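Dear H.,

Thanks for agreeing to be a second pair of eyes. The structure we're designing against is below in token form, covering all 98 positions.
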């Protein structure tokens, strides 16, 4: 081996840590919508339209694709978005209480 060692390039990004099992019982009821390739104003319009058209979508979690999550398995993305949504709801409830 001559010279400096080559650096290995890693293209796969690690998945975020999710607390598997903690909220999986809730997963069957959690609705998640993932949008890809839409402008921010289109995302907001789609969210409003879906919630207006489908009462069951009132508490749906919405997400857009990112450079990071495009490589994830769908199940991992749904779990991650559902957990973020749960945390957001808990934070919003706490703010309302005081």
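And this is the sequence the design step returned. I haven't edited it by hand at all.
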């Amino acid at each position: 081996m001559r010279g400096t060692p080559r650096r290995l390039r890693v293209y796969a990004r690690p998945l975020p840590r999710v607390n598997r099992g903690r909220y999986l019982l809730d997963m069957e009821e959690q609705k998640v919508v993932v949008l890809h390739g839409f402008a921010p104003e289109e995302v907001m319009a789609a969210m409003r339209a879906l919630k207006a058209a489908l009462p069951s979508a009132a508490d749906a979690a919405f997400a857009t694709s990112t450079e990071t999550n495009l490589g994830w398995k769908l199940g991992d993305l749904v779990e991650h978005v559902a957990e973020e949504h749960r945390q957001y709801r808990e934070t919003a409830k706490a703010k309302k209480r005081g």
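Two observations from my side: Residues 8-18 have pLDDT under 50 and may be disordered. Residues 24-97 form one domain.

Warmly,
E.
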